User: What shape does this take?
Amino acid sequence: MTERSVYLDYAATTPADQRVVDAMLPYLTEHYGNANSMYRLGRDASRALEDARERVARAIGAARPDEVIFTSCGTESDNTAIIGLATAAGRTSGHIIVSAFEHHAVLEPAWRLGKQGFEVTELPPRPDGTVHPDDLAAALRDDTVLVSVMHGNNEIGTVQPIAELATLAHERGALLHTDAAQTLGKIDFDVAALGVDAASFSGHKIYAPKGTGALYLKGGTRMTPYLIGGGQESKRRSGTQNVAGAVAFATALELMDAERPAEGPRLAALRDRLVDGLLGRIEYAQLNAADAPVRLPHIANFVIPGVEGEAMLLHLDAAGIAVSTGSACSSGSLKPSHVLLSIGCPVEFAHGSLRVSLGRYTTEADVDYLLETLVPVVDRLRQMNPLYEKMVAGLAGAAD
Amino acid sequence: MIYSDKVMDHFGNPRNVGVIADADGVGEVGNPVCGDVMKITIKVDDDRIGDIKFQTLGCGAAIATSSIVTEMAKGMTLAEAVAITKSQVAEELGGLPPAKMHCSVLATDGLKKAVDDYLVRHGREPIAVGTIAHDDPDFDPHAEDDGEHAH
Assistant: This one.
């Protein structure tokens, strides 16, 4: 029905920026050496790698370049941090706290440790989508070794008070790791200001290619390496380094930082246009975690009562629009989004959630196209819903 | 996960959507907490399904299976209609992804309920009772799905 293509799922992944691709390509073809080789090709690769490391360290406010470990993705960074920090120095037991709405790249390793001698507390966020410092203070124990709370939530876009949480963790002798895959480059990010011991990053969320990532590990922090072998990355992450990927990551991050003063407000204005437009045009729709004190400029998550998310997504796809949903059916899992459930969203409404995430190439016209396409899609699905009247009975916020 | 062209056709252009106002039988299965609900209304002529309409809240597969089951059932005798299996529904759609097979149970159960409702209204013995998966309090629509997921 249309050939228009509108990508509104930047929190899932971003296209690689051409400037990033241009910067990395020579390291795939011309300067292809192994950064660990002694001859010139190797030295050239090593120089490029260390240059990229310095640039990333500077961008995130690290004290030293070797606090940056290049990895293959955000998941590897998260897995490495959770398992490596918890089991540092041969530790086999202890208490770990993770927020309940972490990405599964944090939850799964925590759960595994929970079966292997550690005790795991899942700390629920409050309904505003924020992990409250008082709640962490109450959950911390003398034997807590590690706290992991994501900086920006990937589904609802709420930003956590990491600096306060880190202070609390440190007061009790625990380390604090934060998954910053959604915040790096999008808002101010400085490891010193946040006071974190470790932080995970993903390249493909900031217009670098998939298969690139990094882990910040504060100097002096003990960590059992997750990948072992050749001892690369100062023995903290074995495996031949992806030099082109490191160059791409550093370039992408610098572009994010350089453009953020203009891009941040531009995205926030687009997001507000989206939120106002959607809430104004779709009866009973709600913005999830609407009361969050701080939110990312590029993510908005809605519940649209009386529709099912996958059906909504498929109709939008037919119109060329890419978005995501937390419905169970869309993910192949059986329960709707654990993030939405953790902030108290009723299950029947979580099945009808819609996440829209904006990015570098999103325009006002894209947002408007989504809105004008979504309204008849929702009307149609609601008309097909045998329980629609029952489901919205008692809901406030009718659009007029 | 990829849907067949026929699933997408029935999802995008569902047949027999709506409610028959003076229906002879009504079947409703599922609930919003599970994410899918289906309601079928039928008109019965001489023990055959003369007209049939559906409403479904659910994913692409739930809507597509609802749509195709109404096409399959129209004109069938009541006994034939309640004998439609979930596998026949999936086959008719050119297959369903494994994680979506349970959606076809929603459609066949909705139809069975509507037929039994008609029979009971006319003082006759229901013929589908006992074969309706959703009537089982322990029914887990996802039980046959990928075993990695706990329900």
User: Anything to note?
Assistant: The interface with chain A takes residues 1, 8, 11-12, 14, 17, 19, 28, 32-33, 35-39, 55-63, 99-100, 142, 145-146, 149-151 of chain B (CB under 8 Å). The first helix of chain B runs from residue 5 to 12. Confidence is low (pLDDT under 50) at residues 144-151 of chain B.
